[in-house]
Design goal:
It is found in: Cytoplasm; Nucleus, Nuclear pore complex. It contains ten helices and four strands. The chain is mainly alpha-helical and about 260 residues long. The protein has one domain: Serine Threonine Protein Phosphatase 5, Tetratricopeptide repeat (Alpha Horseshoe). The chain has a two-stranded antiparallel ribbon with strand order 1-2. A two-stranded antiparallel sheet has the order 3-4.
């Protein structure tokens, strides 16, 4: 509910502002230790990113309530935003976007980690699980860049707004696609913030959508084996529907104004 989100936001904001906050039955304050504030900035940013790969990966709608709080905290406490991006880029290099290259002397295990895979006891996580986590992280990022905390003063621009999403999209299309990963993440990204990008960039947005359909999809097809076609087919269907209807639908789970009255 909107009222619950406000409580959570206020508690985090109070903690970062140096006020005393009750947590787990104890009263805590960042002023209790010289590095208290730095530690809390770091852990909070990490927590937001973890929610992307856990909560959002399992429940796509969760991206919006988490993102609106993260965006509002970022606006008042910019350090949290810097650390959020650092944690996000480390966990999901595709959010930069960047595809790490295998360098001489790097072990395969280390390289898998650089690509964002979880490696435990020399076992690499399943591709499905990996894609699910990456989807959660990209969806959270795509939600943050379009959302603002509705109770802020909103004098300045969004601390990390849609222009960053536009840049991400353009950079993705300038890179050679990766089988499975590229189609999955482009679909996640456009499902979540395609509607906002469409409203902001209008004609330019539709030009980029046509470019994806005419030029980029054939490049993804060229490197995709028959067993990996699922994500590509879903992405193609999504684009065709948007082009037919001349509209990108509002994302499922987007917060309506009525939400804040709840």
């Amino acid at each position: 509910a909107g009222s619950q989100l406000r409580e959570i936001f206020d508690k985090i904001n109070n903690l970062l502002s140096g006020k005393s906050v009750v947590s787990g039955g104890r009263t805590v304050s960042v002023t209790q230790h010289p590095q208290g504030l730095d530690f809390v900035y770091y852990k909070l940013a990490e927590k937001f990113v973890n929610q992307g790969e856990e909560e959002v990966a399992s429940h796509h709608d969760a991206a919006f309530p988490i993102a609106v709080v993260a965006s509002g905290i970022w606006e008042i406490h910019p350090r949290v935003g810097d650390l959020f991006l650092a944690h996000l880029h480390k966990k999901c290099p595709y959010s930069v976007p960047f595809y790490p290259a295998l360098k001489e002397g790097t072990s395969m295990e280390e390289y898998q980690r650089m690509l964002g895979y979880q490696v435990k006891d020399s076992k690499v996580e399943e591709q499905d699980h990996f894609l699910k986590r990456m989807s959660g992280l990209i969806r959270l990022y795509a939600a943050i860049i379009q959302l603002r905390w509705p109770y802020g003063n909103k004098q300045g621009p969004h601390p990390h707004g849609l222009n960053y999403g536009w840049r991400w999209l353009a950079q993705m299309l300038n890179m050679e696609p990766l089988a499975d990963v590229t189609a999955t993440l482009l679909l996640d990204f456009l499902e979540v913030c395609g509607n906002a990008l469409m409203k902001q960039y209008q004609v330019q947005f539709w030009k980029i959508i046509l470019l994806i359909r005419e030029e980029y999809i054939p490049r993804i097809e060229a490197i995709t084996s028959s067993g990996q076609m699922g994500s590509l087919m879903r992405f193609k269907q999504f684009l065709e529907k948007c082009l037919q209807q001349k509209e990108v639908p509002l994302p499922k789970g987007a917060l309506q104004s009525s939400f804040w009255k709840s």
